[in-house]
Specification:
- By secondary structure, this protein is α/β, with parallel strands linked by helices.
- It is built from seven helices and eleven strands.
- Helix content is 27%, strand content 35%.
- The strands form two sheets. A seven-stranded mixed β-sheet has the order 3-2-1-4-5-11-10, sandwiched between helices. The protein has a four-stranded antiparallel β-sheet with strand order 6-7-8-9.
Length: 251
């Protein structure tokens, strides 16, 4: 019998795309291209950091970019590779940790969406991630990413909901730890396999840092911060913003 795990994005990967079917990946891809246009930037090669099941990576590849996807979950990458193959798209999916990954050659641009960087719970982890991205980019490359703000995480109510699909049930329980300033969600899921249901348990945690902390860490990693905006807009972000988009350039 396999040892039970609460690591995120293991068995959840099997039903992730069904549960997240309403996530606006296409809107995010449009916004990223809009940012590139706003700054007269024309990348050819793009890093999708924390690419998950490849939803954004596939959209960018469909639009003609050469995409490399990096994610720490082999289960999520397995789904991403199947989707790319079925769409006849070549994307280089690489298993790697956001804090310490490396690529064979520098790329033109990097993106990281859906508050993936909030999964890094300590300041030094975020700093390491920014340094890794800097090393993965060519000089002048743009790094665009989003983060949930402290205000956003603190506003998430502690509640439990049930999500169900054609082959799964997932109990989703939110909780905010005001002492640690962590938001966590505990997933208890059941996936149908033939005549049986297989249970899994995962815990996902996020932490948010002040926007000025991100600016400082980015500059230390060799980035110039070109802007921090309200989600998918060009209005300046503030600490009251729920999701902030940073646009940075490797100096």
């Amino acid at each position: 019998m396999s040892k039970p795990t609460r690591r995120p994005y293991v068995h959840f990967a099997e039903v992730y795309d069904q549960i997240m079917a309403d996530v606006p990946y296409r809107q995010w891809a449009d916004y990223i291209q809009g940012v590139w246009a706003r700054f007269s930037f024309e990348p050819k090669t793009v890093l999708d950091l924390a690419c998950g099941t490849g939803n954004l990576a596939l959209l960018l590849a469909e639009r003609g970019y050469q995409v490399t996807g990096v994610d720490s979950s082999s289960n999520m990458l397995e789904v991403a590779r199947r989707k790319a193959k079925s769409s006849s798209l070549y994307i280089d999916f690489v298993e790697g940790d956001m804090r310490s990954f490396s690529l064979e050659r520098p790329l033109d641009a990097a993106v990281c969406v859906f508050d993936s960087l909030n999964y890094l719970l300590e300041p030094e982890h975020v700093q390491s991630a920014y340094k890794s991205v800097s090393q993965a980019l060519a000089p002048g490359g743009l790094f665009i990413f989003d983060v949930n703000t402290p205000a956003r995480l603190a506003a998430i109510p502690s509640e439990t909901s049930l999500m169900e699909g054609r082959n799964h049930y997932v109990v989703w329980s939110d909780h905010y730890d005001s002492a640690r300033k962590w938001w966590s969600v505990r997933l208890t899921g059941f996936i149908k396999q033939g005549d049986y249901w297989r249970r899994f348990d995962e815990t996902h945690r996020e932490r948010a840092f002040p926007l000025d902390d991100h600016r400082k860490w980015l500059q230390e990693a060799g980035f110039a911060v070109l802007g921090a905006y309200h989600s998918t807009t060009f209005y300046p972000a503030s600490e009251d913003t729920s999701r902030a988009y940073f646009v940075t350039e490797k100096e």
